[in-house]
Design brief:
By secondary structure, the chain is α+β, with helices and mostly antiparallel strands. It folds into two domains: about 80 residues; about 230 residues, no CATH class. It has 17 helices and eleven strands. The strands form two sheets. Strands 1, 2, 3, 4, 5, 6, 7 and 8 form an eight-stranded antiparallel β-sheet that branches.
């Protein structure tokens, strides 16, 4: 038992609590004696470093957005031994140093010039996840307050994500107030749905299919592969400082290869099968969207511009429907209305004002 005091946000309310930490099994409990509040048990392995230095430290929870725990001063040994260590660049890079690691990346790039088309798929998985996360976090800032939030809309989005991504492979899924039929996967496992996509969709099952497809890009780190292919290793070695706008435009304009699209479709179909969500609606959505796109010409930043469809891909979703399966809607009607109306109902969200972000 420890009487060490910390501050804490539970990720549900905006209340900052002064808490005690009590070890419990392979984790701990946070309690606020003054109010009698006790939080859910957390595991030490769930903690992620937000910021840690000599005098101040803050940690998040890998599965609970908004969960925060922090303190100042010297950490008691019984707690310090369990806390994750802050990574500046990544574990093995911190061990050997930035410049030796940069040199190794440069040599690796030179060796694979001959295989330019295949090399990005080999290099991207070697990029430290911490670098990729920071790059995605920086790109999020370029959306400038255009993320939509309402209590009912957020709850509906979380319910949809919980079905399609039960293992929390995506670090965050958000809705942006941008009237384009699009969804984008940023580096670091961030998925952003555009409001135009929700307004075009006729059911939450259609959005579930798109979300599952983007989850496939997260799982396979396709965005980093595409950025390395487009911009070279400079996008990694240079970090995100000063160039986030250019990198974000690169992501928005990115077109994935046939193999990556097929693999992402497979993830979407698998996740929908596990969630008992019919892929028929996604097939119909692709068919409808493809027909409209062909009828009026390609438009910038639409989902089809970065995820070109084919009759074969649409047929694959349709063929994934299993007769006799008891499918269920991804959201009920009240949740679907709340999600689609989230941007319109959020009075604080920034308005979209043009083709650029």
């Amino acid at each position: 038992m420890s009487d060490f005091r910390l501050w804490h946000y539970d990720g549900v309310t905006a209340v900052r609590r002064s808490v005690l930490l009590r070890p419990a099994g392979d984790g701990f409990l946070l309690e606020e004696p003054e109010s009698g509040w006790t939080g859910a048990q957390a595991r030490w392995t769930d903690l992620t470093v937000i910021g840690a230095d000599k005098d101040r430290s803050a940690y998040g929870h890998s599965a609970i957005p908004g969960w925060r725990m922090g303190f100042s001063g010297e950490v008691p040994d019984g707690i310090a031994m369990h806390l994750p260590k802050a990574e500046r660049y990544g574990r093995w890079i911190d061990r050997f140093g930035f410049w030796p690691a940069a040199g190794l990346f440069t040599v690796a790039a030179a060796l694979v010039v001959w295989g330019a088309l295949e090399a990005p798929g080999v290099i991207a998985p070697l990029i430290p996840q911490s670098w990729e996360n920071r790059m995605g976090d920086a790109m999020v800032g370029d959306f400038g307050g255009r993320f939509c939030h309402t209590a009912a809309g957020d709850a509906a989005l979380h319910a949809l994500v919980a079905q399609v991504d039960p293992d929390h492979e995506a670090r965050e899924v958000t809705l942006a107030n941008i009237p384009m039929v699009n969804a984008v996967t940023l580096p670091g496992g961030r998925i952003i749905l555009f409001d135009g996509l929700l307004q075009q969709a006729r059911s939450p099952d259609e959005v579930a299919g798109v979300l599952g497809h983007e989850l496939g890009h997260v799982r396979h780190r396709d965005t980093m592969t595409g950025l390395v292919r487009q911009l070279g290793l400079s996008v990694v070695l240079g970090g995100a400082g000063g160039n986030t706008g250019a990198y974000l435009n690169g992501v928005l304009a990115m077109s994935y290869g046939r193999d990556a699209e097929s693999a992402a479709d497979g993830v979407a179909i698998d996740q929908m099968r596990e969630a008992k969500i019919s892929p028929a609606a996604t097939a119909a959505f692709f068919e409808r969207l493809g027909g409209r796109e062909a009828g009026r010409g390609a438009q910038a930043m639409t989902w089809l511009s970065s995820h070109p469809l084919s009759a074969e891909r649409r047929r694959r979703f349709a063929a994934a429907v299993k007769p006799g399966t008891a499918y269920r809607p991804a959201l009920d009607q009240a949740q679907w209305r709340a999600l689609r109306g989230s941007c319109a109902a959020d009075r604080k969200v920034a308005e979209f004002w043009g083709d650029g972000l």
